[in-house]
Amino acid sequence: MKILLVSNMYPSKEFPSYGVFVQNTETILANEGFQVEKAVIQKKTAKWQKALGYAGHYANVIRKGMSGGYDAIYVHYAAHNALPLLMLKKMKPSVRIVTNVHGSDVVPEVPSQEKFQPNVKKLLEQSSVIITPSRYYEGLVREKYGVQTPIRIFPSGGVNDAVFYPDKENKKELMARFNLDPAFRYYGYVGRMDVGKGWDHLLHGFAQFLREHPELKQEVRLIMVGSGKDDAKFFKMKTELGLDESVIHFPLMKHADLAAIYNIIDLFIFPTTRKGESLGLVGLEAMACKTPILASRIGGILDYTVEGENGWLFEPGNPEDLARGLAAYEQLSDQQKSLAGQAAYQTAQQYEQKKIQSKLSAIFHELELTK
Fold this sequence. Notes:
Its EC number is 2.4.-.-. By secondary structure, this protein is α/β, with parallel strands linked by helices. About 45% of the residues lie in helices and about 15% in strands. It has 2 domains: about 1-160 and about 355-370, Rossmann fold, CATH 3.40.50.2000; about 170-350, Rossmann fold. The protein has helices at about 20-30, 45-65, 80-90, 115-125, 135-145, 170-175, 200-210, 230-240, 255-265, 280-290, 320-330, 335-350, 355-370, and strands at about 1-5, 35-40, 70-75, 95-100, 130, 150-155, 185-190, 220-225, 245-250, 265-270, 295, 310-315. The longest helix is centred in the N-terminal third of the chain and has 21 residues, at about 45-65.
């Protein structure tokens, strides 16, 4: 079966984590014996580069779709790729499209993304199959669009256990790699400094936690990994809250370095407020390193987080509740923390890439039988 993989997100040397789940999907399909070709673009920062990139991308999608002889076109990110695919479908009605929707595809994060919604609905209606990352997101799609298209669940490429695995016994060596003081215990955050990611609520919650437990100010630190449109706001807020010594920031990292951070930290904090948090793969990556999570009670996170077993939940956008969660975690015994880490690891194994890849191939084999 010959598949054209379409996406406006794909990793590059400069941005190695950007759209890495699309690359993981490509690997999975190839491992399952499918012939995969790509029509993708990589991240650009300048507006003119983005404009030229999308123009070329759209033309490439239509050109390849018309002449490539593909059995299916598999698209990631319906919002930004719907236009050329709808044009292609009009010119070549026999084209069969499999649409993977996640994130802002269904729940726009900013007003400018609303303009894509009519085309998203049309693309989902004209797709042969829709793929969503979680049961939660499947419900959102059905509720919002009312489509009759079959929906299947596949968790965003899964977790690569060749990269994300427990390495707690080497924690001191890992700390030395990042010049971290082993005298402290560390919490962690990984995500963009951007709208809806909850980095601001995390800073406020962590500041409140330290105010209420001043004795821990010389025991714990918060590592925050990521960059984004709100970088300037992040650094300003960190200073205003008196957290310059207590919060350690790193910019975007390669996956191997992220795995080291997940192993260094005792607790991963996932403060998203996005209703469109379709799965939350970073939470599963942390769990794969035997690190439990403290996460917002929202979105696809609820598909895999069991309160009090592999993690804990707090009210989205509520710094006070987040601070209470941190305080409750500090009250746990070492054995309770260890059991939570083990349960987190067992959960992540259910999403391991090699274990789930057959689910994706089954979707395409099912499509092949309906020709």
